[in-house]
Design goal:
By secondary structure, this protein is an alpha/beta fold. 25% of the residues lie in helices and 25% in strands. The protein is built from ten helices and 17 strands. Strand 6 and strand 7 form a beta hairpin.
Length: 363
């Protein structure tokens, strides 16, 4: 079928709206009409080739939409269902079998631009366009997914804004609620307050954290964090971060979350912990990036853990986040600004400048 999609054809090139041919769904595939799709830094890393994505390509991996057609073997959803699309996992490796799909041994299939069998889903005039980004490529009017990366959701929530629950929001909320699991009355520092960090702040509030400290170089983001419920703010360009956190908390934070993917920031997040404190790394750094830590600090009971996609089972946790949203406990809609698909380049520019937290395209 003919669809409309945003295509990147060269390294760091702009997104171009084009008509493409999308395969009909195979017996295990699902055709979804995209209603909303968030822009994530991982999409932009594909655009600039910071991750090994083949070009030309259609990116987009925070999609939400309506099921239009299903293959003969699909049982999970039916035409007309509202869905959120998330990352692909194989379902058969050791970690998937242990209900830890975010750590799937085949996770890098999400970046390969083909089906797992190497076949292509998108073409233009007979020429290959790489799709299947996170098994969806949802910067488009329609996309193909499978049961492994689709979650059926209630129809009483605004479908156009819930796509980011499939990656960015789940990463921040899940890292707090599923990885750190902060105790009520505890303290937490969030290093980096883009959309993931802001979602983490909302999760920390929901968990009953008493002191929630936002750390970033951007004053506008610090002000936004305070509006969302952070209790303190620190700008590293003016403040000695570790010393300031020690002062605010009286000896160190109970938990810290690193959303920047930078060795210096990770070291600060770890060094700011109280004894027995836990630091969680969410920010993605380039491959082989190293960080040094003080061994005595580790011996005193401090812990460093990593988190991918919030360490959650999307089938369970995305509905949980939607229920929290309905109850007013997770107002992630405050993070979102919508744009038509045709305005994708403006949405990217506004995201990179910090003008918006989470841009969502509405095909």
């Amino acid at each position: 079928m003919e669809i409309k999609a945003a295509v990147v054809r060269r390294n760091s090139g702009e997104f171009m709206i084009e008509n493409l041919e999308l395969d009909d769904p195979r017996e295990d595939e699902i055709l979804v009409k995209v209603v909303g799709v968030g822009i994530c830094s991982t999409d932009l890393s594909g655009q600039t080739q910071k991750i090994p994505a083949k070009l030309p390509a259609v990116f987009g991996h925070e999609g939400s939409g309506i099921v239009e057609k299903v293959g003969s073997n699909v049982k999970k959803v039916a035409p007309g269902d509202h869905v959120v699309m998330t990352y692909w996992s194989c379902g058969t490796c050791k970690t998937c079998s242990n209900d830890e799909s975010a750590f799937c041994l085949g996770f890098f299939q999400n970046f390969r631009g083909t089906r797992p069998d190497g076949s292509i889903t998108l073409k233009k005039d007979g020429n290959v366009v790489h799709g299947n980004f996170f098994n969806q490529s949802s910067f488009a009017s329609h996309c193909l997914v499978t049961e492994r990366n689709i979650v059926k959701v209630d129809k009483d929530v605004p479908l156009e804004i819930i796509g980011p629950l499939g990656c960015g929001i789940i990463s921040g909320v899940g890292a707090v609620m599923n990885c750190l699991k902060p105790k009520e009355g505890s303290s937490i520092a969030i290093f980096g307050v883009g959309s993931v960090g802001m979602a983490a702040i909302q999760a920390a509030i929901a968990c009953g954290c008493e002191k929630i400290i936002a750390v970033t170089r951007k004053d506008a983001r610090l002000d936004q964090a305070m509006e969302l419920g952070a209790t303190h703010k620190i700008n590293p360009t003016r403040d000695a971060v570790v010393e300031e956190l020690m002062y605010i908390t009286g000896g160190g934070v109970d938990y810290s979350l690193e959303c920047a993917g930078h060795p210096t920031v990770l070291r600060q997040a770890f060094d700011s912990l109280h004894r027995r404190g836990v630091c969680c790394l969410v920010g993605a750094a380039p491959r082989f990036t190293e960080v040094s830590l003080d061994m005595i600090s580790i011996m005193q009971g401090r812990t460093l853990v990593g988190s991918v996609e919030g360490d959650v089972n999307p089938d369970d946790f995305i509905p949980t986040m939607i229920e929290m949203y309905k109850e007013g406990k997770l107002p992630f809609d405050k993070l979102i600004t919508t744009y038509p698909l045709e305005d994708i380049n403006q949405a990217v520019a506004d995201t990179q400048s910090g003008k918006v937290l989470k841009a969502v395209l509405t095909p």
